[in-house]
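Much of what follows relies on a compact textual record of a protein's fold. Think of the row as the fold of the chain written in a discrete alphabet. An example makes this concrete, so a full record is given next.


***
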Amino acid sequence: MRVKMILPALTEATSPFFRPIKYSLFPPLGLATLAGYLDPDDEVTITDEHVQKIDLADEPDLVVIQVYITSAKRAYELADHYRAKGAYVCLGGLHVTSLPEEAARHADTIFCGPGEDTWPRFLADFRAGHPAPRYDSTERTLATLPPVRRDLIDRRRYLVPNSIVVSRGCPHVCDFCYKEAFFKGGKSFYTQAVDAALAEIDRLPGRHLYFLDDHLFGNPRFAAALFDGMRGMGRLWQAAGTVQSVLRPGLLEKAVEAGLRSLFVGFETLSSANLTEQRKWQNIGRDYEAAIRRLHEHGVMVNGSFVFGMDEDDTSVFDRTVEWAIEQGIETATFHILTPYPGTRLYDRMARAGRILHHDWDLYDTRHAVFRPARMTPEELEEGYWRAYRDFYRWGSILRGAATKPTLRGRLRHAAYAAGWKKFEPLWDLVIRAKQVGRLLPTLEAILAGFGAHPAVEEAAEPDEPVARETVAREIEPAGSHTSPA
């Protein structure tokens, strides 16, 4: 059987003018995971349209397309193309789960929720000649997960080919998050067995890893056992976690000993009222500044995530948030416009209030205002979002943030990483177009190798500087939500 798996690209990722590095960070791990369930004699290809062109002249028997909201239009175009050629087309992913009726118009079979239980059932039905038009996930387990088909991924096209997911979902219930809709009908957070996760890590070449889990620290017992098992493996890795998990005694220390060098942290808002409205309970009453200090003291760089447009936000929120982030010495920041994704409680609430402006899914990218904010206009929200990025990554802001570090070396590191990530984006574009991104991985590994050990020792030789355990490592911005295979 000839099987073609496709990750459609966002329009921006195929622009002839500029291509951001974030579209060349991670390979399509979800599709490679599903490929592991296919038979050895199946002819399988994975095409990531972010980094390669799709051959539309081929004639596969089965086409599998992973659909995100901002790639839905392109996904449907590809689905219609292959159905017209006689291929059997499957659609799955976050957007399909949220709007199954819409997706079903373009597919022979759709998948709702994670694919670990539905995909094997479909394959058995398909080979027997009676596939169902829809499969809904109900059983949530990673116990029989096969090895990821990384042999189908061209590692040279990605800066971070060693992405990995060892859990699914998140234990929290934030109103703006897709997760609740995606995992409806079963457990919304579950993990691999520790030994299986360690075996997958051991199969990966090189030193660097990026955990794409929504919340790697979500099960403290699992995380502690995983970090204990990783100690001594010589890995350097990055991940996402919460303020709550950073403040939990003992767990961060285990992560650092296992090789943690940077953490994507969802601060989201400085307003307690906003946190309450969005049911982000895990942040309420937490000391953000203490969490940042704790990470920096352990040599871990911070990539702070912030969301603009919640109901307590007025036009002053952008400057206040940027100024706070700079004062805290956050190395990199990721800003978002609040986006009411279909299937979320936020969407339902805004739809009932008549605040949704349109359903052009291409613009549901956290960079456009697709709803009517409470205390500003949509135009003010978009302008403030872009200003926040511009102001945070100004040279003056970078140098001010760097000045919060207690050592000269620490200040130079901060300036180098913040500038390297945002100030030289045109150079990243050239590297992407030359298909040379993978060649920079050894550089990334070399950079991370010097951090997170015991900075007090390495900085002791610097005269007239306070001794401190500090370091930074470039945070890789996740390209959209961390997702499970679907």
